[in-house]
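Hello forum,

I keep getting stuck at the same step: I have a sequence, I want structure tokens, and every attempt I make locally crashes halfway through. Rather than fight my setup again tonight, could one of you with a working pipeline run this one for me? It's a single chain of 682 residues.
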Amino acid sequence: MSQQRQRWTCGFTMVLAACSLAYGVGVTPAEMAEAQRWVTARFQQEPPFSFTYGGKSSADLLGGWKVERTSRELDDARTEYESSYTDPATGLVVRCVGISYDDFPTVEWTVYLKNAGESDTPIIADILPLDTKLERTGDAEFTLHHAIGSPYSAIDYQPLTTVLAAKSEKRIAAAGGRPTNSDLPYFNIEWEHNGVIVVIGWPGQWSARFVRDEAKGLRVLGGQELTHLKLHPGEEIRTPLVVLQFWKGDRVRSQNIWRRWMRAHNLPRPGGKPLKAQTAACSSHQFGEMIHANEENQKFFIDRYLEEGIPLDYWWMDAGWYPVDTRYNEWGWPNTGTWEVDRQRFPNGLRAISDHGRAKGVRSIVWFEPERVTPGTWLWTHRQHWLLGPKADPNQDVADRSKPADKLLDLGNPEALEWLIDHVDGLLVSEGIDLYRQDFNTDPLGRWRMSDAEDRQGMTEIRYVTGYLAYWDELLRRHPGMLIDSCASGGRRNDLETLRRAVPLLRSDYLLEPVSQQNHTYGISFWYPFYGTGMTREGLYDSRSCFCPHMTCCYDMRDRSYDWDRARRVVREWRQVAPHMLNGDYYPLTPFSPANDVWMAWQFDMPETGEGSVQVFRRGASVYRMAELRLKGLDPEKKYTVTDLDTGKPSLASGRILMEEGLAVEITACPGSALFTYRVAP
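Reply #2:
Ran it on my machine without issues. Output:
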């Protein structure tokens, strides 16, 4: 057996072979040159977008329009390119604003359309900010690597592969208007040791198509799923953000270049500082989110965590801190739309809790869901003209199931947006909130589209998305040291535009059981350097399965009989490996599998500091007790001290041995886990 061998030594030994990569991850001159060739061809010559205007293709029209091109350096790492196309007949101006990066083989752009004329434009339709063609020279076929989003399943973020054969087409789209609801808008196209990462950044209903011709070409198209609209005089709209990143060689290496670009140029930097791994705690499991919480029990839980020697970065207060109607809506969540603190349970406001924690070094997270408005709340009763959805009686009873149970606060309405910014900003200040958590537990697409006129299809979504981004931008402008948590029934709204402003502290709403959590980490780590989940399980296998750059502890602090030594051990181990998960290169060491009879393992490596960690899981039905895992990314000429965190014993091995022969791992428990850290030996 070339890939697997067995021997009888206390059971079976499984050898999981994989190609070792060169030490570290670095961008090559060939990759930078490929990106620059694309910039020259598409930013300075043929546009990378398409649309129809008055029923005619932009490919046939733009040649007759006035074209202006400019470029300027934004900073030491970025150059901006702007191409402007003006229709002399109607005054429509189409601007493509692109950026190339000097430290990564990456380009991005956004297309804007403005009516600079004096009357409505003809219909603009099928606006595709991404319309480009790739060509291969050899016989190897194009392979599309993509992934499931976060639809509340045990296989959220599962990597998928589609071979794009001649004359085939693959279409992938969001579901319900939340961008990572069904599929991720992050793609990697591979052919003959070449490839390009393609990403659509749009917190709405995007779609992408991959169309193979009969020869060796692949056309890649993407953007907002539905656009068929006219623009009024002076009106301007934007399209989804598009990013391309070019690579050569190994695909896993390309994903690590992506992770590095995400950290360098995209992840939020509260107060101008890079993100660090962080831990939080909450009492949601004990008090029905915050429905049964009060000032006393919140302070008690904070104090108990610290008493048990479990340091916290944040105390998390979730849904239900406002006046709660005990009748529930269709989602089973507390009513949303009256954003005032419940003074009966919190007579001194949330400020008393946030100040209590801050005095002990613990900052506060507070949950909001401002977009979803339910019957009986202040917004429903007093601001119906700000809401999107079917017309209904403002005094509709919450328990009336014959009518829709919620509407959307229209973030495309300037008056509603201004109110929301000022109101939430006031709460952030008055209640001493350090981290703003925004949830979104409804699919908006139907409400967007029912609000569009026939000649304005897609406009409500565009205005809403633009308002959503402007809302967060203004909150961050007013609170530059604040971090935002992006949540939408778990991880259903984590497109790139969102992740430039926020982080997902809860990557999925799926049950915190170990196999699903392993699956989620395996898939999400290709694309997101920072993500989080909760931890409620007791054993090491369960707890280690939940390790993420952000961890939320959900222990019941009223139980003094719990094994708090074990809890402290879990947190200590997490603190050792979480920085690697955030700042390291990611290498899967086994195939992805949802099955319960396999091993799953991965490695996070930080070549700049010569350290990293390896996380290994033997699932409950696996017959194997041992594995040899070939590590990646190490320096073959250096020695590494590898420490088994279960025994505390270090061992010494060269990078070459660890990559070619592997790290021997024995797990006798079933299910069971192993955890290793390593560092270049002095």
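Residues 29-265 form a domain with the Beta-galactosidase; Chain A, domain 5 fold (CATH 2.70.98.60). If your local run keeps crashing, start a new thread with the error log.
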